[in-house]
Task: inverse folding
């Protein structure tokens, strides 16, 4: 029996230097981000310093992306393919861990654990009816991140923490956003209010008031990040391209304000936070509808992309105007995620941001734009191993904070 790693938990808490690998594969389905993070703690276990040792991105193949896109829609998902993907995608995670360890030059024996998000295929924070054990039906919320920790454990030899959203949901939360907990550790300022605006598949914002306590932090999904723009490119190119490089196609078009306004008349954008959304709402079907509407308005592909880019920028800025600024004074928006590489989108956000808010990047604060989430998940895993709660009920809406994550020793 493999019992060698059981004392690991106690040893981990006594150490002052910890090495954790954070693995994130987000809703844009572009691949896996892997960050090796060194965390220093003091005698009381309190966090002293966070260093990014190394970071790699392993892109998904077009073939894998197509499988995952099918699995994210009830109309196209099959349970045999889902089960295979649950194990299969873990091989990609193990591969990215091997690449990261090799690139870092750190011996794998020095790494304490892997903390992995997995691939969300379905996220349902709004309850649906499910048969109850004593008759009648129960309201059930649910979420599924595929990727089997046991496979990653076997391939890498390292303990793995996974399934990080489930416990918060079981405690009445939305199961996200989770990374705001880590944002507070990395970006909170004693003197100014800051936003961390992630532009991944979905856009999500963390609000860090000046000198805020955990209770003062809020976060929510603003709506689509790159998801609608990406789906338009994918559908228009028959899957050959999956994003608009640097926003160059959108830059050649002109957005249709009428269509942007139509799209902004949307229940999700109006809903008060806390709230979360995903591919279920702004995925392929949403983009197809937007393309149909663009077609009836005789918009070119470039105009359609400019319109989707403008919509994305508007949802990000309006979320700040409608839900943040009435309550919190903000001096800077720290953008991160793949969308920061879309110059057209960034310029639209810059032009629309209210005066007095600087548009910066997390990279300006030492956290590369594309590594924030992977580093965030490393920190969440670290907190769980330290035996500390790692969720923010004020953000997720849960009844209480929990230690989220299942440990595969
Ligand atoms: N050079 C580029 N030009 C334009 N867009 C880019 C570029 N590089 C990346 N992107 C965009 O960034 C996306 C990937 O972003 P990211 O990796 O932050 O998403 P994610 O982590 O999967 O999503 P989420 O944060 O929602 O979970 C790509 O799908 C693409 O739309
Ligand atoms: C269910 C799910 O995977 N949600 C993601 C998604 O991608 C962005 C946004 O929607 C965010 O709420 C969340 O991830 C981030 C990493 C989070 O929980 O902080």
Result:
């Amino acid at each position: 029996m493999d019992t060698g790693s059981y004392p690991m938990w106690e040893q981990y808490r006594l150490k002052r230097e910890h090495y954790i690998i954070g693995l994130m594969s987000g809703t844009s389905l572009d691949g896996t981000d892997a960050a090796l993070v060194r965390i220093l703690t003091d005698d009381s276990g309190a966090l002293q310093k966070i260093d990014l040792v190394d970071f790699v991105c392993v892109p998904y193949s077009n073939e894998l992306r197509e499988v995952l896109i099918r699995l994210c829609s009830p109309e196209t998902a099959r349970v045999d393919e889902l089960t295979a993907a649950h194990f299969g995608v873990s091989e990609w995670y193990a591969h990215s861990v091997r690449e990261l360890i090799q690139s870092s030059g750190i011996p794998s024996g020095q790494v304490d654990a892997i903390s992995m998000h997995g691939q969300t295929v379905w996220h349902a924070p709004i309850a649906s009816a499910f048969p109850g054990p004593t008759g009648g039906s129960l309201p059930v919320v649910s979420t599924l991140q595929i990727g089997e920790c046991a496979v990653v454990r076997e391939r890498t030899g390292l303990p793995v923490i996974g399934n990080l959203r489930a416990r918060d949901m079981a405690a009445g939360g939305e199961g996200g956003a989770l990374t705001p907990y880590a944002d507070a550790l990395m970006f909170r300022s004693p003197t100014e209010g800051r936003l961390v605006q992630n532009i991944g598949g979905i856009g999500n914002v963390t609000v860090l008031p000046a000198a805020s306590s955990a209770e003062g932090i809020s976060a929510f999904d603003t709506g689509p990040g790159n998801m609608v723009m990406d789906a338009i490119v994918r559908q228009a190119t028959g899957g050959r391209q999956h994003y608009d490089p640097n926003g160059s196609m959108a830059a050649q078009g002109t957005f249709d304000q009428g269509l942007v306004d139509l799209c902004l008349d949307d229940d999700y954008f109006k809903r008060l936070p806390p709230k979360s959304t995903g591919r279920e709402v702004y995925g392929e079907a949403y983009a197809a509808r937007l393309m149909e509407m663009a077609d009836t308005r005789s918009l070119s592909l470039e105009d359609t992309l400019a319109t989707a880019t403008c919509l994305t920028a508007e949802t990000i800025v309006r979320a700040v105007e409608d839900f943040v600024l009435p309550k919190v004074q903000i001096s800077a928006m720290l953008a991160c995620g793949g969308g920061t590489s879309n110059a057209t989108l960034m310029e639209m956000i810059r032009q629309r941001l209210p005066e007095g808010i600087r548009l910066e990047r997390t990279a300006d604060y030492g956290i590369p734009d594309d590594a924030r989430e992977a580093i965030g998940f490393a920190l969440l895993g670290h907190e769980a191993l330290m035996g500390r709660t790692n969720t923010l009920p004020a953000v997720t809406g849960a009844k209480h904070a929990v230690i989220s994550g299942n440990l595969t020793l």
Remarks:
- The two ends are 12 Å apart (CA to CA).
- The CA atoms of residues 86 and 147 lie 5 Å apart.
- The mean pLDDT is 95.
- Residues 26-27, 120, 123, 143, 176-179, 200-202, 204, 221, 276, 278, 373 surround AH0 (ligand 2) (CB under 6 Å).
